[in-house]
């Protein structure tokens, strides 16, 4: 019966009829992997690895010599099996089907295979599970932009045993030879629907393993999940014994792009016996420099006291799933890792030693994952149980060694010579990046941190070839400043390359090395030092600035031959570089006070200190042995302090800046103010603690906060101008310049007139509105024009401007429409008549406008509502006597916009309708036919001119009697 059932199922499902036997059950697990084997063509080695049951499905396993692999490009091939490898005491076998295929173009391709039949008696698949055709697939993305690529391989066979009530975990030990990032997610096992080329679907009736669980190992809710980072798949915990299949997907990512997926369909057998699973002690993540020898103990225990067997899986061993070594360099370049004391029963607690001599070929950005597995060794007849731990190893590039820095001379006179040992851990394309920062503070770096983060203060200034061992830094070096340097090897990005079908690991390097040691140097002070640039006089012509500088502190008499000379240079602007010499001063190197120069410009080029800041520097010359004046060095440039004033509401905002080699931060600056104009007198009004680059500011509200030289506090007026001057204090950070003390400088004078943004207070508005309840039906009778009377009262407050020039009246016919400007009236008028209205309905507010043209906020909103009225009689006599000849509203109507009238006779037929501003029916039909005397019914829909736009109309229903032949 079983054979007949399988045959019928295959026929109904559209399968090609295949030979089957009563032992057709055999496929336990499998996956498809690929490997790019050509640098010049899209040629891949494709491997389908299947795991067969060698107990119940031995005969079927023997018959599985060839299966069709579909390449995803519309082609397929029948592929023969390599000799099987038996594992797990010959209860299972690893069967490899390998083929080479060349793809026509760069595209995504899904490679797949279908095998009849799965294992029978798999509990979470619909019975009979042997009738379900096994199906797996892998997707690869061939892209010209992503370089060479091979899919990850899984080095741990997908066959394990678990125990009822105990947490079970499996790790596939996936390894990606290109160092791409891997991610894991659960999937549903698939069923093939045909052999060539297969259609497939999720297996109908597949059940999650948790359906066969009662509780977790600790008594909580059972779970079945996979760690997306490590690939560890755990079922916590099986609830009954039996055979179970499930699937998961390994995603391969590069540069944020998903470039491949592999599906592994795997099987476990759950037993119910008293054996408890062994444990591996937790393992730390490791980070080592290439060249480090790793000796990591792996310790396992068994709660039942049984011996344990520790095994390991990972690309670092260069060993396949069958435990056999792979061709040299297939997964990593040698040396390969080893597991001492592993793969053999040992007494517990048992320890095996993971040993790996790393080298430069193994540097990569992605870590290496090594999966350790422990089996217990129970008595004969009891199923062995397993546990896993993953060791994650980051192999980083070693640092450049023995970096030193020393001063040197170049044509510009300012340089630092860097030297280091030859770097031996790079490959073609590797460069050395040179980083620099100011100051000698040595920032501790994480031993696994590669490169230099921006937070360290370092910035890259140059990059040199791998073969370089020195560099001369001349870029924007400042005298008296300490500079620190570090080097980082920068490896070329890219995936593996292929030579003669073998992956070359030497190109796998990516990212950066660990930073070198820090080398710091203070440049000698061979130039004068700027100490002051202060503005003495602020004028558009004939301004004046005093400039001071010191002698070259690091130069002693006799170091260089004299005589010596200073050349003072000036440029216009805070950051200007177009320096021109304005003075030449001969000097000696004897101890002397600072050199002073008062710059007044020239008649042809006067100083405009009112409009411009100025920048100064000093060149220093000595006399060479040939008797020629030769420039030794030049000072850092220093600018004058530039003050900017901006008007605010009865305030003046001040900000100032200077471009100087000394720091003006962490000092107290002084603010001076004159109420009498730019020529003073100036009073000190405030002190400002300047702590950072954003604190060179002050807001003057008229208060004198330092009254020792006279209290000048009073509110700033928008009718007056105020002038300011700032005194800055600064200091050099270099300890060698500490003797120069505080450096005092004054800004130019800057004047400003405060603004006045004070607005009037909003008025208080009232409106003479209708009292609808008090109106009689005759009130407003036949009135077609209306007037709204508005009146308001000005209000005052301590922050309001009382000087009102006009009032603005805003109006909207409907509520809640936006009010628009209706009109303005000049103060002191406080009332307005809004006349010639067709209705009193509408809303108003009023604003006050100051003499400076500033408008207040709106007053309170007031609205007037109409009092509509409309009534119809119940008889009229259309006999032409001029009395009661038409059907029209009684007495009068009020605020009516439109009336829609429909009249019906007593049989319900419509005889008349009209629409207009009122009702005036003469007793005729709509087409002019005179209607006879009698009773008629009407419906009047009345629309009123009220406050609400689109207000609902009033619907009036009633009857009216037409009487002809006499008056009414």
UniProtKB/TrEMBL annotation:
One family name in Pfam for this protein: CHU_C
Record key words, sorted: Signal
InterPro entries in UniProt: Ig-like_fold (IPR013783), T9SS_type_B (IPR026341)
Source species, domain of life: Bacteria
N-terminal signal peptide: 1-24
NCBIfam families: Bac_Flav_CTERM (TIGR04131)
Name of the protein this chain belongs to: Gliding motility-associated C-terminal domain-containing protein
